[in-house]
Amino acid sequence: MVSRVVFGRGSFNQLDEILAPKRKGRNAPFIFYVDDVFKGNHWLTSRITLSYKDKIIYVPTKEEPKTSQIDQLVEDIILEHSELPSGIIGIGGGIVMDIAKAVSLMLTNKGESKDYQGWDLVKHHGIYHVGIPTISGTGAEVSRTTILTGPERKLGINSDYTPFDQVILDPELTKDVPKDQWFYTGMDCFVHCIESLNGTFLNAFSQSYGEKAFELCKEIFLEDTLTKEDAQDKLMMASWHGGMSIAYSQVGVAHAMSYGLGYLLGIKHGIGNCIVFDHLEEYYPEGVAMFKAMKAKHNIQLPQGLCADLDGHQFDAMIDVALSLEPLWENAIGKNWKSVITRQKLLELYQKM
Ligand code: NAD
Ligand code: ZN
Q1: Which atom of ligand 1 is nearest to the CA of 156?
Q2: Pairing status of strand 55-59 against strand 118-119
Q3: For atom 24 of ligand 1, which residue has the closest CA?
Q4: What's the CA gap between 179 and 181, in Å, rounded?
Q5: How far does the centroid of ligand 1 lie from the alpha carbon of residue 135, in Å?
Q6: Substitution site in 179, 181, 184, 277 for ligand 1 pocket (most atoms within 8 Å of beta carbon)
Q7: Which has the least CB within 10 A, 102, 104, 161, 186?
Q8: Which residues line ligand 1 (CB under 6 A)?
Q9: What domains does the chain contain, in order, with CATH numbers?
Q10: Among residues 162, 353, 202, which one has the least CA distance to residue 273?
């Protein structure tokens, strides 16, 4: 679990105060990874104080993080600084938060990040790391994984060392998120709830968080009663609860298939989940009906025909990635999932997208 968290509009102002006691010396900098959408954004960046060798690195977010990118970022830090950093701070969406987590781990664990993709392969504590979400939904701020695309697979580094040491939840930071992106990333949270609550791994711990996140999502995306600020506050908490829910259970069909789309076509997590979930009536009938109502209410048009021109090898590559995520299928379908989820079944689903 995340050991420390502050919540509240304006809580980002406490950043300096939170970091100061963690400074290890003049040569041990704080490295801030900031989503490049905030480049030149004085409102946000003026509140990051740089001392000694501290550095802001702006991160482009067109593509999701790769293991090679993490290895490069780690090498850059090692070459530039004589000591390990005092802390790694990620300010942005799921991409930037995952980068901060992965860099923190790879600074203290030998070798290449691709070798740690999987479950509980990390041996040592990472560098002190702080997550500050600027868009809500992924639950990356609370989860024990950092999702990376490697040479062979898209898979998280899941470990007890992955969660942030500190999170700052300031809903005000989400005020300028574009509407479509707000929906896609918000639906990531909604899909986490549906997959967790309808999974065979469900337990009372996951259920209590999942139900809360689900209630919040319904309020935010289907009702008209909230002010803009309340909706931002609540979506930030829905993301947190959705993340907590899957931390102790698992995601399901939409995530498994969306990883395939992401791996082959570079389709990002949030929109990829939406594209897949739209076709999953057979597995999540009520959730999909609710999703379609949300989509209509917010006038969201999803891309169609993405797989229309793919050849057999390309479908195979997506199906391989999806099928490799065994715990997700076991959660979604049960222990006998292999007799239900055939390659033909996945091919037919992908062909609809
Ligand atoms: P993202 O990080 O790609 O951000 C989406 C877009 O929103 C970007 O273009 C970004 O620049 C923009 N943006 C972010 N904050 C903004 C703001 N305040 N104002 C204006 N624009 C803003 O998207 P995401 O959906 O947050 O994250 C997706 C990533 O998270 C994927 O890489 C996925 O694999 C990962 N993920 C991780 C976990 C986990 O548990 N670690 C869970 C789910 C998803
Ligand atoms: Zn997700």
Answers
A1: 41
A2: unpaired
A3: 94
A4: 5
A5: 7
A6: 181
A7: 161
A8: 35, 37, 61, 64, 92-96, 98, 134-135, 137-140, 143, 145-147, 173-174, 176-177, 181, 185, 188, 268-270
A9: 4-174 (3.40.50.1970), 179-351 (1.20.1090.10)
A10: 353
Tokens of 350: 């992908």
pLDDT in tens, the chain (353 residues): 999 999 999 999 999 999 999 999 999 999 999 999 999 999 999 999 999 999 999 999 999 999 999 999 999 999 999 999 999 999 999 999 999 999 999 999 999 999 999 999 999 999 999 999 999 999 999 999 999 999 888 889 999 999 999 999 999 999 999 999 999 999 999 999 999 999 999 999 999 999 999 999 999 999 989 999 999 999 999 999 999 999 989 999 999 999 999 999 999 999 999 999 999 999 999 999 999 999 999 999 999 999 999 999 999 999 999 999 999 999 999 999 999 999 999 999 999 99
Q: For residue 169, report the distance from its CA to the centre of ligand 2, in Å.
A: 19
Spatial distance between the Cα atoms of 53 and 46, rounded to a whole number of angstroms: 17
Tokens encoding 315: 């479908």
